[in-house]
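Morning run. Coffee first, then this:
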Amino acid sequence: MTPALSIVIVTYNSAGDIGRCLDALTRTPPAGPHEIVVVDNASPDGTAAGVRRRWPGIRVIEAGANVGFARANNLGIRQTSGRLILLLNPDTAAAPGAVDALVAALDARPEAAAAGPRLLDALGRPELSFGSMIGPFAELRQKLLVRGSQRGVPLIRRYVDRLTGVPREVDWVSGACLLVRRADAEAAGLLDERFFMYAEDVDFCAAMRARGRRILYVPVGNVLHARGRSAASTPGETEAAYRRSQVAFYDKHHPRWAPLLRAYLRVRGRLPDGP
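And here it is:
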């Protein structure tokens, strides 16, 4: 049976996280025909072998190298066939019925290309997993809200709780759990592979919005986002990858601001080497 939903999970050093993610998907699976594909970015911790051993029915694609989040997701998208694609991080765990609720919410809005659910952190607090198009001021606002919420600042915590409790049209939703119609993903050219890690979800949503399509935040069901160990295992590389993606994003979407961003990062000693 041809799957209606393709779930693509990109892993890198995810052996400590992928179990909870796949257990959640296989113990209470989505109701409709679906497939699950794990794309492994040459994890040295044995992630790919562990998935094959414990979940032999799940297909594992080995990228052969650490090709980054966007390119690995594109590999998975191209080797699946569902009319809907769920991009899912390995450090997530969907509550029973959460994926079905997200699918139903997107199906109810034919003008929408993609949707994201409510994400909860390890303490069960809603994450601010959507926002306005990244720019100097929107990015600053997002960071202040996220950090204030994580630190438990009461006023910010209550504000984030209210924001995340209401369905809305947004500029982007987090790639940690992003449901997209295949037709829209392909029309947008899939994820831009110049973004090795970070900002690719914002750019992807922007490409779909540029075609007149809508992006939805729908707080139906809950998806735990525990934030895994892959980034924490290589903090220096992660920081450099984030800054490279940030610079690439500004080059693409805000070229007038890009030189100022580079100057700011250079002064702070955070301008990454290379492209």
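Residues 188 and 208 are 6 Å apart (CA to CA). Good start to the day.
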